[in-house]
Structures are given as C-alpha cells and as structure tokens.
Amino acid sequence: MPDRRVLPHEPRIPPGERDFLRLWAGDAVSQIGSQITLFALPFTAVAVLHVSGDQVGLLQALYTLPFLLMPLPAGLWLDSRPLRPVLITVNLFCAVLVLSVPLAAAAGALGLTQLYVVAVLGGAATVTSDIAKVALLPRLVPAERLASANSRFNTGLAVGATSGPGLAGWLTTLVGAPNALFGDSLSYLFCAGAMARLEHREDARPARPPRKRNLREEVTAGLRVVARYAPLRNIAVHAALFNACAQLLNVALVVYLVRERGYGGGAYGLVLVCGGLGGVLGTVAAPLLIRRLGHGRAILAVVTVSVPAFCIIPAAHGTRATVVALCSFALFTGSAGAGAGSVVSATVRHLASPPDLHARVNAAYRLVTFGSMPAGALAGGLLVDRIGAHATLWTAAVALLFALLPLVLAPVRTLRAVERQDRAAPGLPAAG
C-alpha cells in the first residue's frame, strides 16, 4: 500500500486569483451600497425636500460633474502610485461622507445644499476609485482571462444595480430615505476591508528616467490612445451619447413614476431592480458573445436589440401594474445591452493599452463617455419642468437611437480581436 499520509498542500486558489476575488467582492458590495445612495438621494430630494425638476437635475449633474473634470488628472496621478492605499482611503472617506446625511436628518438640519455637497464629493471619489479598480484588474489576471474577469467585475456592478434599488426601496419604506444611507456607509467599510486584504503590492514603482516632465503630454497620453484607435474611439463616442441620454431618462423617470403617477418607492425600485437583472444577463453573456462574434459585432448586436426597448417606457399606459411591468421590461432589455457593451469596451481598453497607461487610458475613456452625463442630467431637469416628464422620456428614447450610429461604422463592425499591448511605449494597437 502506498503511503497515504496527508502532506501539506499548496493553496488551491493562486494569490492573484485570491486578490481578484477580494477586489471583486469589495467592489460588488460597494456597488450595492452605491445604488442605495443613487436611489435615496434623488428620492429624498423629491419626496422629503419637495424640490423642483431643475433641482433634481442639478443634483444628478453635480454627481456626474467630476466625471468630466477629474479623469485625466486622476489617471496620471494613479499611474504614479500604488493603487491599494488609494482604494482603502477613498472607501473610508465615502463611508463618512454618506453617513453625514442620516446624521443631519436626525438632527433636523438636512437641506438641499448638503445633498449637493454629498453628490459632488461622492462623484469625485467614485471617479478615483473606479479608475483605480479598472487599472488594477489587468495586473491581477492574465490576458486570456481578461474578458471573463471583466464580465465578473461588471456582473458585480449589475448585481448591485439589481439588488441595490430593491434594498433601497425597502429601507426607504422601513426607515426613511435619509436613514437608508446607513447601508451604503457599511458597504464602503466592507470594501475598504477587502482592499486592505489584497496581497498584491505596488510599493516600488519603476523610477522614471531623469528628464524634464511634460505634464501636458503625460496627462493626454491616454486620450491619444483612445482617439487614435478607431474602434475604441467609436465605442467611446457611442457610450458618451448613450450616457447623456440615459441621464436624461433617469431624471425624467423618477419624477414621472414618483410624482406624476404617485407610485412611490416600491414600484420605482422594482423598475430599477429589473434594469439591474438585465445588466447581470448582459455581463454574463458578454464573454460568449465575444468568442462567437468578436468584439465589434458583439457590442453591435446587443445594442441594436436593446436600445430601441427604451421607447417602451414613454409608450407604456394602462393600469399601474401594466405600466410598471412595461417599464421594467424596457429597462431590463436596455440594461442587458449596456451591461454587455461595458464588458466589451473594458476588455478592448485593457488589451489596447500598455500596462503603464492603463489608468490614463481608462481615465480618458471615462472623460469622453461620462463627461456628457452632467449635460444630460441638467437637460433632463430643464425639460421636465418645461415640457413634462412624459415628453422628456420620449425625447431621451428617440435620442438614444442616434447613439447607435458610431457602432455601425466599419472600425467597430469589423473588429474581431485586439492584440494585447505589453510594451511600455504607448503605441497604437493592432486589430485582428
């Protein structure tokens, strides 16, 4: 008989995989909490402070304003320092920030100005954290697993979008909208703890050669990669148009369902939950679509099916159950396309840029794609007050159809694969 003594064994999960799971888990829980805040802040403004449509639009715009102003300098700053300490600090800051809302409400001092401050500082922290996480991801997983890793990462985001609004609606009904933010504060603390357990260390950064730094060139390096690589450029233009229109729709939807139809937090939360379920489906299906169709045709296929579904929302009429069901289906279908598209675009960005530019390329992409969101939110508030929430929903749905145009062009339609860029120099990627 052979010796069957139990010998010490190596961990079944490699260190890099353990770190990815910690990064993914921390981000997933944080995303759930963030959805609580994204639900509770405008709901508090509308239902508790009784603000106008313009003020709801301004609240949304202030949250998205850092997505326009911060990405390029944040990307340069993050590329020159370890990412783990940044993620820990940002999450601890966010925990304190959102906790200030229920504390102020308990003291009877909550006002719209504080919601504005929480929105803009929370947006700035989100920009920094998201760029850092996306830049850290390809350092934890090999190239052949990037599509799968991005799918799992975006699935966490979609799960947050699914469970967060439902949890927020339940908490809002149970303890009130301001107190629901306790949940988000706890989620940030969990994420900070997960980041503290990462084994991957980047304390020793490669020294830059002694030369006079050209800050303008360094800041815009990521933007040049996005601008010069035609498929990525067209995907970014599509995402910018899509996000602006989505903000328009988001502002109108909360006013339309909560104020004009009087459905309350439960029905509004159910619609958002269904949107999150669609996002989960899209992110899970994205790797298979990439393998079968290639990067370009995968994103084109999903958005040409999903984007027209947004027209169902303003077209919905009938009983309360019918309207909620139709809006839920529309948001489910539209979010499925958005979820799959996010996985494709993230994978293309990771492969199309060298490691020393990951943060700056992702920052540049976010500048282009999220920079349009403040304008969309402000326009949504203005249109809601002037033509009504229902007409604004129609405007957003029709405008979303025009966001498809950059994807039907050859650079995206014919993109099959992207060769990973491993050189330090920011050369142009080659499409396969």
From TrEMBL:
Q: GO CC terms on record? A: plasma membrane
Chief location category: membrane
A UniProt-annotated Pfam family: MFS_3
Q: Where in the cell is it found?
A: Cell membrane
> What InterPro entries is this protein classified in?
MFS_trans_sf, TM_effector
Keyword field contains Methyltransferase? no
What does the record say about its membrane topology?
Multi-pass membrane protein
Spell out the Gene3D superfamilies in the cross-references.
MFS general substrate transporter like domains
Membrane-crossing residue ranges in chain numbering: 32-52, 58-78, 90-110, 235-258, 270-290, 296-316, 323-344, 364-384, 391-412
Keyword list (alphabetical) reads: Cell membrane, Membrane, Transmembrane, Transmembrane helix, Transport
Q: What is this protein called?
A: Putative MFS family arabinose efflux permease
Q: Which organism is it from?
A: Streptomyces caelestis
